[in-house]
C-alpha cells in the first residue's frame, strides 16, 4: 500500500507551526469533534482543513498522489477578499516571501524579437506564487492538526442518516460525518455523489501542457509568449530565475461531452506528450527546443481548459469545493482565490451552524453562488483572445497587444478583475475583526 500518513497529535498544535497572526475563532469547539474527510491536498482541501480544525472538527485529507505535487503553473490572488483570508490564516507573509515577482510578459515573433508587452498586473494579480509552493505552505500550516493520507483515493461512498462509510482504493474503509470533494476538475467525489463528469464539465476547446525546464534564455523575472493560429507557447522564469516554466495552450477538436485529457490518456503522460509534439511540429521560435525538453520533464501536467457548472455543490452529507464545484477556467485568473474564499465560507458556516450540515450547506450555497458566477464569467471567452484559432484573429490580437500600453483604458482589465474578486461580503465567523474594509470579512 503506497500510503503515507501524518497522524494528528494528542495535544493542540504548537504556536511554532502557525504564524502568530493566525485567527483563533471564539467558537473553536463548534465542530464538537465531528469528523470530516477532504479529498484533495492541493489548495482548496488544505485551506478548508485549516479552518475546520480550528473550529473543533477532526480533519483528514486524502490525496491520490504519493506526496505533495511539485511544479505547476503560477497562480495569483487579487483584491482584499483574497488577501484578507490569507492574512487571517497567517500565511500571507509566507506567500509574499515566495512570490514570483514577475514583470511584464512580452510577445515575440519567429526571431524572438519583442513585438508587444503585457503589464504584470494584467496576469499576476496582487501576489503571484507557484502552485507547488502554495501547496507546501498550506500543508505546513495544517499538518499538525490534520491527518494527511497520501497515495490513496476514495473508491466509494455509502451514506446513511448518521454519516458516510468511505471505501478507499488501498486503505481500509472508514466512517466520517461529512465528506468534502476538493479534488479538482476531474473530481472523484463529484462523480460518486453527483453523477458523471460529462454532466458538469464544459470543455472550452482548448488544452494546456505545463512543465519545468532550464532557463536557457536567461529570463529575469519575465516571460515570453509566441502566438500561432490555434497555438501559444509561453516560457517564464521561476524560482529566482534558476528555472523556467513552459506552458503550451492549443486548440483541440473533440466530440461533444469529451475533452482532450480523456481522449489522450488522463494518467498517461507519454500519450499526452505525443499529442503536444504532434500539435506543435513545425512551429517556430524556441518551440523545437522546448518540445525536446518536454520529454525529460518530471513534472509534466496536461489537461483540458474547462469550466464546471453545477446547480448545487452539496448533496446529503457530501459537499464540493474549489474546481470540483465551480472551476472558472485556468484562464480566468480566479480559481485559486475563489478556492481559498470558498474554504473560508464553508468552514465558517459549518462552525456557525455547530456542525449542522443541512443549515451550513444551504448558507454556503447562498453566500457563494453569485460570487462564483461572477468569477466564472471572467473565464468565458478568454480563450478566443489567448489562443486565436485563425490567422486573422492572431494578427488582430497581436495588434491589440501592441497598442495596449498606449490606450487610456489599459488598466481597466486589471481593475475589472479586482472588482470581481472583491464582489463578496464575508462574515467574520467569530474570528479576528477585519470589518470596515471593502471586500474584507465583516
Low-confidence stretches: 1-26, 432-442
Strand content: 15-25%
**What's the helix count?**
14
- The tally of beta strands, per DSSP, is 19
| Average pLDDT figure | 85
Which word captures the global form?
Answer: globular
Helix content: 25-40%
| Whole-angstrom Rg | 22 Å
> What gap, in angstroms, lies between the N and C termini?
46 Å
Structural class: alpha/beta
Sheet with most strands: strand arrangement: 1-8-3-2-12-19-18
Largest sheet: 7 strands, mixed
List the helices and strands and how they pair.
Elements: E1 4-6, E2 35-39, H1 44-54, E3 58-63, E4 74-77, H2 79-89, H3 92-97, E5 105-108, E6 114-118, E7 127-130, H4 131-142, E8 146-150, E9 154-160, E10 163-168, E11 174-176, E12 178-181, H5 188-193, E13 201-213, E14 223-228, E15 231-238, E16 243-251, H6 260-263, H7 269-279, H8 287-294, E17 301-308, E18 314-315, E19 318-320, H9 323-326, H10 335-352, H11 357-379, H12 382-386, H13 391-403, H14 412-421
Parallel strand pairs: 2-3, 2-12, 3-8, 5-14, 12-19
Antiparallel strand pairs: 1-8, 4-7, 5-6, 9-10, 10-11, 13-16, 13-17, 14-15, 15-16, 18-19
